[in-house]
Amino acid sequence: MKKLFNKWVLLILLAILVVTQAPFVYRRYQFGQLSEKIAEIRQQRAPSTPNGAAQHSEGRRFKDYKGVIHVHTNLGGHSTGTFEELIAAANANDLDFVVVTEHWSDAIDTAALTLNGVYGKTLFVGGNEIDTGDGDRFLMIPGSRDAAALRKLPTTAVIEKLHAENRLALVAYPGEFKSWDAEFDGVEVFSLNTNARKISPLTAAFDVIWSFRAYPELVLASSFERPDENLTKFDAIASKRNISLVVGSDAHSNIGFHLFGDDAGNKLVNFKIDDYATILRLARQHVLIDADKPLTVESLIDALRAGRSFIAFDVLNDATGFSFDQCEGDSLCVGTPVESRIVLMKDGQIVSEVNGNSLKYGPFEKGIYRVEAYLGQLGPPFDKMPWIISNPIFVR
Length: 396
Ligand SMILES: [Zn+2]
Known about the structure:
Helix 1 packs across helix 6 and helix 2 (83-92) crosses helix 9. The protein has helices at 2-44, 83-92, 110-113, 155-164, 192-196, 201-212, 216-221, 228-238, 276-282, 297-306; strands spanning 54-57, 60-71, 97-103, 117-119, 122-131, 137-141, 168-171, 186-191, 244-248, 284-290, 309-312, 323-327, 331-346, 349-361, 367-374, 388-390, 393-395. Helix content is 30%, strand content 29%.
């Protein structure tokens, strides 16, 4: 009798296991399908648009440089990543630049002591993630030895000081930001870290077991959601003054964006979920720099400040070659390197939408124009989550 009971318990447990795990086995199959579709789309890329293709706009020629903003190493705490690991990952990802934003320290100048200069093929810029006396957080680019002291100043004074020193102040964690009337330069409208915190730990745990080793970046990308609130807020500010938007990696290389471990290095699983090499593959900021000028800290900051850049979730396909320009006098022209659903917005409202490689709109009127391009052919969530988010063209 006892033996029979054990058998039933075992059978029930087995049934529960099958029922609970079946969806995750199916998800692994779906990740495989997604990976194949991404490869198919990549094939459509015209061979004449090599990476780094130059663009023409208003008589100027630009070159597209791709990189990431908002990366931490073990120098600034909350991270276990080493310089060597970060350099290897940036080079392996063919990144032109990495903006490292170390946390401030009272004892040392973390911006000066982190990676600065060219290592391999990548330019590293030492910045800081700073706090202000009003409890706001910014990415300061480049960083400064004053990073720690800025927490004693109100937000407006911090921005004034940064601007006097020709530094950028980008809003980090807009969900917790308060000083929306301040004159900051830009907003990190999408954060890989913030997005990952929305994932249910249970779903994440089973995805890690079934799919992570095979499709690490796709497991993370499948959780992407369009940052509706941040974009609405951004559009509202853009209607009043010029600002730019960026994507932040907030890469720590310390296990699952804090989901599966803690800062002390206690690990639930024996590999890094937020390995630099994986995170640096997901989302990039592409900046456009005059073709006859080199990529330097100064030219990078100028392009970011002027909004001559765009956000691209390159994990879905390298967006190098995307363009959004004024053309033929009073029209706006958009071009994407592969077929996508191109959406043109004016003051936050859709005014034109097309499936293809290009969109032309005109004559334009006064307004703030912004483009989002979607690879809806990849299926959900990418029908609602943009592949590319452009910076605005301001017609005032
Ligand atoms: Zn950070």
